[in-house]
Design a protein that fits this description.
The complex is a heterodimer of chains A (about 290) and B (about 130). With about 290 residues, chain A is α/β, with parallel strands linked by helices. Helix content of chain A is about 30%, strand content about 30%. In chain A, the strands form 3 sheets. Chain A has a 6-stranded mixed β-sheet with strand order 6-7-8-3-9-10, with helices on both faces. In chain A, strands 2-1-4-5 form a 4-stranded antiparallel β-sheet, with helices on one face. Chain A is elongated, with a radius of gyration of 22 Å. Chain B is mostly helical and about 130 residues long. Chain B is built from 5 helices and 2 strands, in the order H-H-H-E-E-H-H. In chain B, helix 1 packs across helix 3. Classes of the chains: A alpha/beta (about 290), B mainly alpha (about 130). Chains A and B meet through helix 6, helix 7, helix 8, strand 14 and helix 10 of A and helix 1, helix 2 and helix 3 of B.
Chain lengths: ~290, ~130
């Protein structure tokens, strides 16, 4: 089975600035991939390279088995995109904007779009020019859903939505992802949304994929150890997989990756310490990876 | 049926595992009880169904749940596991450890802790 997207040692530079470095990944049908990264880490560039908007400067990337830059028309119609800055036509009404986009796709699901417009409170007769940022964002999302893409890419799709609108969006995204045939890749700063929706996580740091794997595995891999020694000062510790460590007399806190529960006893014995293991939510993990 | 926290450091599939194991061991989920479908749970909690599916598969392998074609998964007959006590004690082990650690940090004696536990037990009897 061809992967939906396959990247091998992808690199992207803009002039002297290297934005993406040595990135390899696979996206399979049924995946919901949450992309996390600081501003400037390269998320938007990565998504744009996936869409074929811009060529890689090294390595390769294929979408549905085709080079990203040369996607044939029928493949392009299987991809949906919600950009960070919307590309709506200000002079049109919502109805007309929907009509314009629908005209490009023979498989437009008007029943779905009508239903979502009602559920999400999108006014079909509103002129786009006068709509709030949130309303514009909802419309951008609808425009990407209508043709039932097999690959849906979203760049900060809910940054301007209130919690209720965000929840409606999540519910709809889950509904379309459950048939297992679609792949969704979305970048977001709203970590709690990612924790609900994603089964896989990409953490982009300075242009590299610092983490790539299941969300469940990520939470099991990266933990915070609370270490207490018996004397007044903790001895030097050799902890495998340590990301950062803070010492305070007889105590230390260490964040580690690739944690194995069996390692606790060995560590406690070898260093004569007591360890309490704290599991970390996704936001905490992200912050710690950047300390 | 479940209290799930997507923001927890404990993966959702593990939260489901622990809760089902505890409820089956305590008799709260008797054999034959139907569990909500993966899809129902996913929709109700707004979470990815794959993590729920994973939990259900593991529980099926453990013999706690059984699949019924075309119908919801049900709690399997636990009669073969006659001695439930060691299992139930194992379930509560982590909580007891946490309580002991906290009590020691607060410099409570063993007797004081036991007394407090007894008090809580009595208060809970109504």
């Amino acid at each position: 089975m061809t992967s939906t997207v396959a990247a091998a040692r992808l690199g992207k530079a803009f002039g002297a600035k290297q934005v993406l470095r040595d990135i390899s990944f696979e996206v399979s049908p049924g995946d919901v991939i949450g992309v996390l990264g600081k501003n400037g880490a390269g998320k938007t560039t990565l998504l744009e390279v996936m869409l074929g908007f811009t060529p890689p400067t090294s390595g390769g990337i294929q979408v549905f088995g085709h080079e990203s830059l040369n996607l044939p028309g029928d493949i392009k119609s299987r991809v949906g995109f919600v950009p960070q800055q919307d590309e709506l036509l200000d002079q049109l009404t919502v109805r007309d904007q929907l009509r314009v986009i629908a005209s490009f796709y023979p498989h437009w699901d008007s029943a779905l779009i009508d239903r979502l417009c009602t559920e999400w409170g999108v006014d079909l007769d509103a002129r786009i020019k006068g709509m709030s940022v949130g309303e514009r964002q909802k419309l951008s999302i609808l425009l990407a859903f209508g043709h039932q893409p097999a690959l849906l890419i979203l760049d900060e799709p809910v940054a301007s939505l209130d919690p209720i609108a965000r929840r409606q969006f999540l519910e709809q995204l889950l509904a379309i992802s459950t048939d297992g045939q679609r792949a969704i890749v979305f970048s977001s700063h709203i970590v709690s949304d990612i924790e609900r929706l994603a089964n896989r996580i990409w953490i982009l740091k300075e242009g590299r994929l610092d983490w790539q794997g299941d969300l469940d595995s990520l939470k099991e891999s990266i933990v915070r150890l609370h270490i207490r020694g018996s004397g007044a000062e903790l001895p030097q510790l050799s902890i495998p997989g340590v990301i950062n460590i803070r010492r305070d007399g007889a105590f230390a806190t260490a964040v580690v990756r690739d944690w194995a529960p069996e390692a606790q006893e060995a560590l406690e014995k070898s260093a004569s310490v007591q360890i309490e293991v704290e599991s970390l939510g996704l936001e905490e993990i992200f912050v710690e990876l950047h300390r | 049926m479940f209290i799930l926290n997507p923001q927890s450091g404990i993966p959702i599939y593990r939260q489901i595992l622990e809760q089902v194991r505890r409820m089956v061991a305590s008799g709260q989920l008797p054999p034959g009880t139907a569990l909500p479908s993966v899809r129902d749970l996913a929709v109700r909690h707004t979470i990815n169904p794959m993590t729920i599916s994973r939990a259900y598969s593991i529980l099926e392998t453990e013999g706690l749940l059984e699949r019924n074609r075309g119908r919801p998964m049900t709690v399997a007959n636990q009669a073969k596991n006659h001695s439930q006590l060691p299992k139930r004690l194992q379930q509560i082990g982590p909580l007891i450890e946490q309580t002991v650690v906290a009590a020691k940090q607060l410099q409570l004696s063993e007797a004081e802790l036991v007394k407090a536990v007894r008090q809580a037990w009595e208060n809970n009897d109504d």
